[in-house]
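Recall the central idea of this unit: under ordinary conditions, the amino acid sequence of a chain determines the structure it adopts. In this exercise we apply that idea directly, starting from the sequence alone.
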Amino acid sequence: MEAQDVMTRNVATTTPEATVAEVAKLLIDRHVSAAPVIDTDGGLVGIVSEGDLIRRPEIAGERRPSWWLALISDEAERARDYVRTHGQNVGQIMTRDVVSVSETTPIGEIARLLEERRIKRVPVVRDGKVVGIVARADLLRALAVRQAPATLSRKDDRAILAELQKILHQQHWEGDLLNVVVEDGVVHLWGLVESQDTREALVVAAREVSGVKQVETHFAAPPSWA
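Accordingly, the structure predicted from this sequence is:
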């Protein structure tokens, strides 16, 4: 399986000009822990995560560097850290050295990348533009649905996925809390779906797609605070 088989396609993004308050609200509203930062042309220029926000003095309190840390650390490094913790817009607090992958990157390589770089997710880019994001949870879902030996080619599975994504988009059922994985003709639906009617409709939509052998649901109700 590759990134395009498991990635979340409806990606929550922000811009360098967005305020800290705006990006905090975005992460909460979209139920995500990070958002790629894009420029006016849609190009990937950074990523901002909840980790960048919880270090701020409004949450963690004002931290004064110890005298020994001031001796061994670089002044420019301390200045950059101050801007990241006190900056008022995304461009000042985001991580600029973004690790990204392509749609055809194998998920095994993505797993190694997350482990080696100690990160939780990677944007998926095509020609410099963000087309998806793969998080640890997406890799776990892929692991959970692995079946061997596969009788359908990945091309067949991707055709099923593309057709189902088209249906979901037409019916406005795609969203941040819904994820679809297709493996050997079996459609796996993951997500937080509150309505039983919507759950049934999603299953019906999946079964309508030519080539689908089975539909497995992994739904859960959204938490009460959501």
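The beta strands are 34-38, 44-49, 121-126, 129-135, 178-183, 186-192, 214-220.
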